[in-house]
Amino acid sequence: MYWIGFVGGLMVAVGFVPQIFKALRTRSTGDLSLYMLLTIFVGGLLYTTYAVLIGDPVFIVMNSLATTNTLVLLVLKLHFR
User: Is the dihedral of CA 21, 24, 28, 32 positive or negative?
Assistant: First the structure.
């Protein structure tokens, strides 16, 4: 049963990877909402903090990956303005 959570978490964690590659390839992030990225990033930080507080290693890793990918996309959004 744990594999379901692991696979689901991994899919969410790498969800922005195709968008990161596209932004790097096209040097464009104009269609991405800055406020959406900020909201997802802050939510990810809070959810990662919660995962650390409850001590769940799967949530910690998956949320850290997802939040890091969101941060990368946020940095690209600010860089390619």
Answer: positive
Instruction: Give the pLDDT confidence score for residue 2 in this predicted structure.
Output: 77
HSE (side-chain half, CA atoms, 13 Å) at 31: 7
Residue 10: Cβ-neighbour burial (10 angstroms; 0-12, 13-18, 19+): middle
Sign of CA dihedral 7, 76, 38, 31: negative
Q: How far apart are the first and last CA of the chain?
A: 43
Q: What is the pTM of this model?
A: 0.89
CA distances in angstroms from 18 to 8, 22, 49, 52, listed in the order given: 17, 6, 26, 27
